[in-house]
Amino acid sequence: MGDRSEKGLVKLKRRSTISGDAAGAHQKTLSGQVKEKEQSQRPRHDTPANKHKNHRDAGDHDFCCHKLQESLLSSDSGYSNYRGILNWCVVMLVLSNARLVLENLIKYGVLVDPIQIISLFLKDPYSWPAPCLIIVSNVFIMAAFYIERKLSVGIISEGTGTFLHCINLAALLFVPAGTVLSLTSITPVGSVLALSVFTILFLKLYSYRDVNKWCREIRQAKARTLSRSQSCPSVHKANGPTEYTHVSYPANLTHRDMYYFIFVPTLCYDLNFPRSRRIRKRFLLRRLLEMVFLMQLMLGLMQQWMVPTIQNSMKPFQDMDFSRIVERLLKLAVPNHFIWLIFFYWYFHSSMNFVAELMRFGDREFYRDWWNSETIPYFWSNWNIPVHKWCLRHFYKPMLVKGVNKLSAQLAVFFLSAFFHEYLVSVPLKMFRFWAFLGMMAQIPLAYLVGRFLRGNYGNAAVWMSLIIGQPIAVLMYVHDYYVLHYESTAA
Question: Which of 148, 234, 286, 444 has its CA 20 to 30 A from that of 426?
Fold first, then answer.
């Protein structure tokens, strides 16, 4: 009995010891967690060893200094802010041209002569053949106007009207050309101005005839009576902003409407042109100052820079010195292209915006971003929007409607453009060499080559090269032939 009781006491002690140890361990665990919690809440002071350990535990991405990215000058980088490079190009361009200007002044002196500029337009101060020829153009304008009036009331048939319009349009091209070729008192520059006016009138009156014909066809199809209203609607105030009366055919057939179309900077006729609400005087003044300044700049650059280069190019052409010809060509390319860029801004931005603001003409899209052209067709369809719209509306699309395929229609558009380029050069110079015509037709194979083999920046560079090099070639060809025809024959 005693042994059993002792054994029971031993077991009880063991159980109590084991349970006590477990309770103590549990208590230590709880106290350790409390201490860790307290330590985590206290401000922590990391030693270098702790920092290294923390970086190692956190991972490489916390201190990595590299990532997947492209260089800024790579096209895949998406970077587009090259303003500093553009400024550098402008500074280099100014410095290089300043050197050329100084070299030109040292070599030739000051060649700018206002009296010589006047002589480009007039040979005889008492004879003004080019302005008189432009005044005569009103006869053709009124002829087209009265033909449309007779057609609107049914006095003449559509066939007769078409025949009369064809005669009037043909006379617009051949009468001034014959006058220029027959008169000795008209200068080449005056001839270019007069023929340019007649060419613009030809395109305008062609559009005028087409649009009125379409209106008659619509009227006949709908068979309804149109109320008559004013052509160039009178402006009246209605709660502040100006409003215009909508014009319907044949109410547009008035003298005021006709001459409004003649003077606005567009070649495509509409019955209702978009109109601006008011004339912005500051905008008008800025455009006028640009026109005056840039015109003087162009004429000065021609006299001081371009003419001496052309004169020095005659000897290499006569000797057929190919290396010297190429050198003269490259030297002429810089002033020629610079003057061409100034002319583009002067004509398509300053002058056309000036006229549009004066006439309150609302459509000011005279050009698009042709400088970004990556193909030749893109350039020709974006640098002169009025001509592009006319070709598309009155020439290209009608040919497609008649069943002509797109390639043939495009070739026809280039052929028409080549004809007018040659018309505006050969007739004033009174010699027919077809360099301008061939230059325009050469755009067709060039467009194929650029579109087929070049893309992106390379295509854009090819377009710029064709503009910079192509024009001086044509200029040298015409100047050489003109010199040989008029000066060498006189000397002989």
Answer: 444
Whole-structure pTM value: 0.77
pLDDT for the residue 379 = 93
3 state SS of 131: helix
3-state secondary structure of 35: helix
How many other CB atoms are found less than 10 A from the CB of residue 261?
A: 25
Q: Which contiguous run of DSSP H or E holds residue 4?
A: helix 2-41
Structure tokens at 213: 């014909």
CA nearest neighbour of 263 among 253, 277, 250, 273:
273
End-to-end CA gap in the chain: 162
Confidence band of 262 (pLDDT split at 50, 70, 90): very high
Write the CA distances from 455 to 373, 376, 404, 424, 462, integer angstroms: 10, 12, 29, 33, 10
Closest to 305 in 3D by CA, of 45, 102, 87, 14: 102
Q: Which secondary structure element, helix H or strand E, spans residue 242, and what is its range?
A: strand 242-243
Q: Is the pLDDT of residue 49 over 80?
A: no
Complete DSSP assignment for 254-276: SHHHHHHHHHSS-SS--SS--B-
Q: Which residues are part of the catalytic machinery?
A: 421
User: In angstroms, how far is CA 153 from the centroid of its own chain?
Assistant: 42
